Amino acid sequence: MKTFQCGLLSVYIGAVLAAQPNIVLFITDDQDVTLGGMKPLVKTLKNIANEGASMMNAFTSTPICCPSRASILTGLYQKHHQVLNNSIEGGCSSRNWQLGLEKSTFAVALKKANYSTFYAGKYMNKYGQKSVGGPEHVPPGWDSWVGLVGNSRYYNYSLSINGTAKKYTTEYLTNVLSAFAEEFLDYQRPENSPFLMVLAPPAPHAPFTPEPKYVGKFKDKRVPREPHFNTANNSDKHWLVRMKPVPLPNETVELLDDYYAMRWETLLSVDDLVETVVNKLRRSELLENTYIMFTSDNGFHLGQYSMPWDKRQPYEFDVRVPFLIKGPNISKKSMSTNPILLIDIHATILQMAGVQPMSTDGRSILPIEPTGNRTFYLEYRGEGSEKYDPSCPWRDNHLSLCSSKACCKCQDSTNNTYSCVRSVIDEVEDFVFCRFEDDEAFVEAYDMIKDPYQLVNLYPGLDPAKRKHFSVLLDSWMPVED
Ligand SMILES: *[C@@H]1O[C@H](CO)[C@@H](O)[C@H](O)[C@H]1NC(C)=O
Ligand SMILES: *[C@@H]1O[C@H](CO)[C@@H](O)[C@H](O)[C@H]1NC(C)=O
Ligand SMILES: *[C@@H]1O[C@H](CO)[C@@H](O)[C@H](O)[C@H]1NC(C)=O
Ligand SMILES: *[C@@H]1O[C@H](CO)[C@@H](O)[C@H](O)[C@H]1NC(C)=O
Ligand SMILES: *[C@@H]1O[C@H](CO)[C@@H](O)[C@H](O)[C@H]1NC(C)=O
Ligand SMILES: *[C@@H]1O[C@H](CO)[C@@H](O)[C@H](O)[C@H]1NC(C)=O
Ligand SMILES: *[C@@H]1O[C@H](CO)[C@@H](O)[C@H](O)[C@H]1NC(C)=O
Question: What sequence ranges are listed for the domain Sulfatase N-terminal (predicted)?
Answer without folding.
Answer: 21-355
